[in-house]
# Entry
Amino acid sequence: MGEIVDTLDQMTSLVIRGLVVHRQAARAGLSMTATACLARLEEDGPLRTTTLAAAEGVSQPSMSQLVQRLERQEFVVRVSDPEDGRASLVALTESGRAVLAQRRAHRRKRIADLVASLPEQEAAALELAINVALPALRRLADTARETDLDAVQA
# Structure
C-alpha cells in the first residue's frame, strides 16, 4: 500500500506542478486556490464563503479576500441565500465559467503537446496505464470529496 501512496503522490505532483500549473497561473493571473474555488462553484453551485473556505482548506479571512478579488474580476458574484435571507452565497458568473473553460482548453493543449513529444511506444504505454487506473482514481476522488463534504458539514 505504501508504494501506491508514494506513486500517487509523485504522480499528482508531476501532473499538477510539472505539466500545467506554472504556465497556467502566469497566463491567467489566477492562483491554484482561485482556480480551485471557481471549479468548486462550477461543480457545486453557489456556496457560503465559510463552506468554500473549509472545502478548499483555507482560512475564512483568506477566502473572503479571495472572493473579493474574484468579484472585482467579475468571476463571482454574491447572491442571497434562499434558505437564510441574512446570509449570502458566492456564485460563479459567466465570466468565471469562461475563464475556467479557457484554462481547461489551454491545459488540454499543453498536455496534448507534451504527450505528442513522447516516443510512440511510451505514449501507448501511458494511454494503457491511464485507462486501467482511471476508474480507481475516480473512485478515490469521489471518496475524498465525500469525506471533505462530511468534514465541512460537521
Q: What stands out?
A: The chain is about 75% helix and 10% strand. The first helix runs from residue 2 to 28. The two ends are 29 Å apart (CA to CA). The chain has a mean pLDDT of 85.
